[in-house]
Amino acid sequence: MKKIYSLITGAALAAASTLVAGNAAAAGLLNVSYDVSRSFYKDLNPAFVAQWKQQTGQTITIDQSHGGSSKQARAVIDGLEADVVTMNNPLDIDAIADAGLLPKNWAQQYPDDSSPSWSPIVFVVRKGNPSNIHDWSDLVRSGIQIVVPNPKTSGNGRYSYLAAWQYARTRPGASDTDSIEFEKKLFANVPVLDVGGRDATTTFVQRGIGNVLLTFESEARLILANFGADKYEIVNPSITVRADNPVALIDKVAAKKGNTELAKAYLKFHYTPAAQEILIRNGLRPADPAVVQKHVAEFPPLHTFTVAKDFGGWPHAQKLHFSDGGIFDQIISRTSK
């Protein structure tokens, strides 16, 4: 069987070349994606490859690159020739647009602000919840160890930070000052800041560090499926953040490779009922209301907020909280002393 799907990471990216299927050179796409989307694309890519073959007779390949969302965006800006990007934070695609690689209005190119899916931040605890962790307030207790990726390099980490901030400031009589104090206590309980969400999963699951892992619901469900529902369980906090998963065509790169139409079809495929069901199977919440309704028992409604509404949008949140010298840097500086 010829290879139709591959994962490319690290040095292998530089050596990536056109793959061959059958007796003819196969057209190929590179999808640069966020850290914990691996399992989803292992399922989605072969489905698209098969559909494209049926419709056009052409054999294609889809290569994947995964890492912390912001780190991936930087790689694309620095020359990694992605045909498409599929991220967990619109800010990272905005950065690519600012570099001139795609239009500023990229979010209007596809439905639902170009986000075919979303996932909330949840808690993963060890079976039986021995540390009795039920909400954000439990994370700042003495003796609790939290595993969370670095907000400077990971969309997962930024969403987790903002969810904790929102919880703290929405308590009766609270203010942003209370949120700062809450974040100090929370990050004082973080023994290591991993680069991306999958690294944080490895720290929690394989290295056995921490009482609780903060991660996307999709990654949490994957942990239970792969490592055992008898070992871990998911806790839904009283409030969490809606993290959309935006997609975008890197116009200039796709055009240079002659992949524009193929790349557009690939992104549109994310919105088909078949793809939306694949999202469900991988623990993601789909954009299609009909698919959502079919699976409401598996994915009950949660109390969520959005960065756009409650933090003035990602550009504002990034500058205030995560830029060099921003609030997060100040918090880390103080907790590390």
Written description of the protein model:
Helices cover 42% and strands 19% of the residues. It has 337 residues and is of the alpha/beta class. The protein folds into 2 domains: 5-116 and 245-271, Periplasmic binding protein-like II (D-Maltodextrin-Binding Protein, domain 2, 3-Layer(aba) Sandwich); 119-243 and 303-335, 3-Layer(aba) Sandwich (D-Maltodextrin-Binding Protein, domain 2). The strands form 3 sheets. Strands 7, 8, 9, 10, 11, 12, 14 and 15 form an 8-stranded mixed beta sheet that branches. β2 (20-21) and β3 (24-25) form a beta hairpin. It is globular and about 60 Å long. The N and C termini lie far apart (56 Å).
Summarize the structure.
The protein has 337 residues and is of the alpha/beta class.
Low-confidence stretches: 1-25
Q: Count of DSSP E strands?
A: 15
What's the main sheet like?
A: 8 strands, mixed
Architecture of the largest domain, according to CATH?
A: 3-Layer(aba) Sandwich
- Could you tell me the radius of gyration in angstroms? 20 Å
Class by helix and strand content? alpha/beta
CATH class wording of the largest domain: Alpha Beta
Strand content: 15-25%
